[in-house]
Write the structure tokens for this entry.
Amino acid sequence: MDSPPIVISASPHVHSDRTSKRIMYDVVIAMVPAFLVSLYVFGINAFIATATAVVSCLLFEYLIQKYLLKAEITIADGSALITGILLAFNLPAGLPIWMIIVGSLVAIGIAKLSFGGLGYNIFNPALVGRVFLLVSFPVQMTLWPTAVENNTTLADAVTGATTLGIIKDGLQFGGTMTELSAQLPSHLNLFLGITGGSLGEMSALALLLGGLYLIARKVITWHIPVAVLGTLALMTGIFWWADSEQYANPLIHVLSGGAILGAFYMATDLVTSPVTKKGMLIFAIGIGVITVIIRLFGSYPEGISFAILIMNAFVPLINKYFKPRRFGSKIKAKIV
Amino acid sequence: MLKTFPKGGIHPPENKLTSSKPIQRLPVPKVVYVPIAQHIGIPAEIVVDRKDKVDIGQVIAKSGGFVSSNIHSPVAGTVTKLDMIVDSTGYKKQCIVIRTDAKNASNFVETEYPLKKEIELEPQEILQRISDYGIVGLGGATFPSHVKLNIKADKKIDCLIINGVECEPYLTADHRLMLEKAEEILMGIQILMYALNVPRAIIGIENNKKDAIETFKKLMLQEPKIQVAALQVKYPQGGEKQLVRALLKREVPKNGLPLDVGVIVHNVGTIFAIYQAVQHNKPLIERVVTVTGKKMGKASNFWVKIGTPIKDLITEVGGMPEGTRKIVNGGPMMGKALKNTDVPVTKGTSGILVISEDEASRGETKPCIRCGECVSVCPMGLEPHLLMNLSEKGMFEHAGQEDILTCIECGSCSYVCPSHRPLLDYIRFGKSIVKKLDVSKN
Ligand code: SF4
Ligand code: SF4
């Protein structure tokens, strides 16, 4: 009998064609609209910042894996690319290039590879990079070039402020929301992206577009973004309802301070979020609550980065206590 | 809304290439290789010797205990050897080799029995017949049927479920049987209802077999006690626990059986075998096998004698195609890859699937990205990524606490994992060790 070259491996013998790589590149595609908006608003600066972050993330991953860890090089899996883009999205346009490089090194070297690389990291690498920069270079990290000024003078950072920054400072110095409203961008501008802030958080519309793409491609589910934004809106809504002069309305909170960027692109990072839907909801509500506490009572106006990192730390615990219900563990059905 | 089970499940490409191919009779092989362990439980004990002449349907190996089954000669001929051969599990097993007597007419006349409606046997005799005639679960599990039907006095059965789901991609053996032998299957159901005194029966069929659903619906018009239920197409709905949940909303307890919720589940093929045994005195010596694969030009369904070498089947559909990488006994989700084609068809062989290079290739294993896909598709509510991790690290006690033993090995987790992690491979390994630990503890 002629025996063909046969493989003997255990079932299943077929496999779905979804791969981690495809998932990663879907995330990249989802970020394209927001990137285009940032190019439109900040011009060449946005390009320089994003390119710097992406190239340094890839390069650091390559160098560390090749020379320090002597491990398999994984730069093609798409995850370092995502980290680079997300890091850039979280930075103000016009941040000195060397700072971006430092941020990338922290993100890839410390937050990702020192934990064991993709799949083993506990914290979202891009956020660790961002928070590191924020703590180390608080001045530069809060110099927000504004849209209009930037179109004329490219590289000069202007001390614009973010929407939430204006509110926070204004309220601290005894202002009321009515008095401050003149300085704030309209809700429509917040939605479309004509406002001060980091590269990627400009346009809620562009971010939502990408977010819907991620949901449609089944890369993420609705649970995390809806629960984060829902909690944020609900809690800030209660404060606003109680005293609309001292607290900004929930729409402002949802549309600014990187809430949408965080909820759709960073809190949903597969590796650093829980595996069950139940767990995701707990995780996301936690992010919402912490964000509100930081925004209303803490010293940072935005807060969602910290909130996500704090909840990242709880993920192993959440995975442990919010397990799927085992089939047959509690019998509801009655025998007729 | 079609019925289905609520938690988990996947929908792999169905690839039912042979659903319109009538069941053909495979020529009787010159030699049959009949293993004595074709069922779950204790192997049968050989009761013939070399050079013995055997008749078609004669017992050649006797049930070795309660959870065991008789084995009958599929042909009339001469025992030439008692040998060890590799069977579908990949291990060498005891096997009776019989050379078919080319002159014996009983090997070649195929009596097509007319439908026989009156039941002559008493309930106890029916159950005895099922036991004597070597009937085992033909859906693939090969659990001896009489054991399932042996119901202790304290258990009450209120529903018999007939499994016509055939959720494995590619396989169409049950589908064809339902189309071609619907009346016989209906009789088989009635025989069992009578023998067990069960008031009602439901036959569950997935909605990709609309013709079978229609056929049965028409037949059941006069049978108010038997329902036909169309099910949403979802793998692994053919799993007993999933099927019971889908049809009756009853959840079989964690370490329990359908019996614990008042249900018995039998596959349509088994029901047909029961009909033949009870009404026509025919032991289980042949079954329907789907022989299929994307490159198999003449893929079809066949009546095959137990013990027929698989290569005979492959020859019948035009030979092994170029670039074959895997030959699977069963469907692509749960079937076993075979070492070679000398392996014989046994009572559990529902299909032979030939898979080519491109379909068989498994992506490179990457780190777990904790996407949770495996968790969301697991029909048993397990966490496959965690179970694999625990098995890999040797933390078997912990794996046991995480209910590793309740895994039904459906393979849904491995199927979806975007990092191509061999989840089920590790879970199987973990299960085998946890079982041993449990045994040593008790
Ligand atoms: S499907 Fe694969 S990558 Fe996703 S959580 Fe499960 S094991 Fe990890
Ligand atoms: S863990 Fe077991 S039951 Fe769950 S999907 Fe994987 S193979 Fe199926």
About this structure: Residues A 275; B 368-374, 384-385, 416-419, 421, 423 surround iron/sulfur cluster (ligand 1) (CB under 6 Å). DSSP finds 14 helices and 17 strands in chain B.
